[in-house]
Design a protein that fits this description.
- The complex is a heterodimer of chains A (68) and B (202).
- Chain A is an all-alpha fold.
- Chain B is mostly helical.
- Chain B folds into two domains: 56 residues; 141 residues, Multiheme cytochrome fold (Orthogonal Bundle), CATH 1.10.3820.
- Helix content of chain B is 59%, strand content 0%.
- Classes of the chains: A mainly alpha (68), B mainly alpha (202).
- The interface between A and B is large, with 38 and 41 residues.
Chain lengths: 68, 202
């Protein structure tokens, strides 16, 4: 799958978010301090990174160039 | 809460995964709205609801007692003798059984919940990367404020003659409630003490 350059940050953001959401979903089944830590350090960090990447792509104009 | 959150997570994953497999979906106005939903709004909502759910779970007795080091403290809630404060509170539903540890061990201040969470992370660190004390001890002396949060103003408390005599001292922590009500978790003596169980009493 060869992608135009502007889409790559969005793909990275989507991959981070999917991974983070899957980690979050797994932690919801646990009622243990380690599940809480996995939620923060795994899910939280991955989702946060994905969202920041998406917002950066908006702020720096990485997003939208590929469809022109 | 959990089914709603899991549905939200599933929807977010499906939309974000769709963007991974079909990058052309981001094109156009609809694509941008879809991208905003998939990569911002839904994940942020899922994270916020997830954090709230985990924070609520962390207040449960089950959560506190899930660590091995806390097991004797859970057991102490079943002591038969009525002198033991945690047991008498737990067994008579003076505190919610689902939130027994949190009810007495949070700080009833503006940032008490937050402080409890920070302390919880510290407990976790010590449990896995340090050596918990035997028995484990509070970081600071137990404050009367936590007792008075419920007992202050309660008729049984206020009408007790001795409480009235030292009411000011209790409010300022000059005299600790635990000086008179001295039997608490007693984890070192558990083996020799009789236990009560809800099943056995009915």
């Amino acid at each position: 799958m060869k992608l135009p350059h502007p889409h790559k940050p969005l793909l990275a953001a989507a991959v981070c978010i999917v991974a983070g959401l899957l980690v979050e979903a797994l932690t919801l089944f646990g009622n243990h301090p380690l599940a809480f830590v996995a939620f923060i350090l795994g899910g939280g960090v991955l989702i946060g990174a994905g969202v920041l990447l998406y917002l950066s792509s908006l702020a720096f104009g990485w997003f939208g160039g590929g469809d022109r | 809460m959990t089914p709603v959150l899991l549905s939200l997570i599933t929807l977010s994953v499906v939309l974000a995964a769709a963007l991974v497999w079909r990058p052309s979906l981001v094109a156009g106005t609809r694509g941008r709205i879809l991208t905003f939903l998939a990569l911002f709004l839904l994940p942020v909502l899922a994270l916020a609801f997830g954090a709230n759910l985990h924070l609520e779970k962390s207040k449960t007795t089950e959560f506190c007692l899930s660590c091995h080091v806390m097991e004797p403290y859970g057991e102490s809630l079943q002591l038969e003798e009525r002198e033991y404060l945690p047991a008498v509170h737990f067994q008579n539903s003076l505190v919610s059984r689902e939130h027994a540890c949190f009810t007495c061990h949070t700080h009833y201040t503006m940032y008490g919940d937050l402080q409890a969470k920070v302390a919880g992370v510290k407990h976790l660190w010590v449990n896995y990367f340090g050596t918990p004390g035997e028995p484990i001890e509070l970081y600071e002396p137990y404050r009367n404020r936590e007792c008075l949060h419920c007992h202050g103003g309660a008729r049984s408390f206020e009408e007790a003659e001795f409480h009235a005599d030292i009411r000011a001292e209790l409010t300022t922590d000059e005299t600790s409630c635990l000086e008179c009500h001295e039997f608490v978790h007693a984890v070192e003596e558990l083996d020799g003490l009789e236990k009560w169980s809800l099943e056995g009493s009915s």
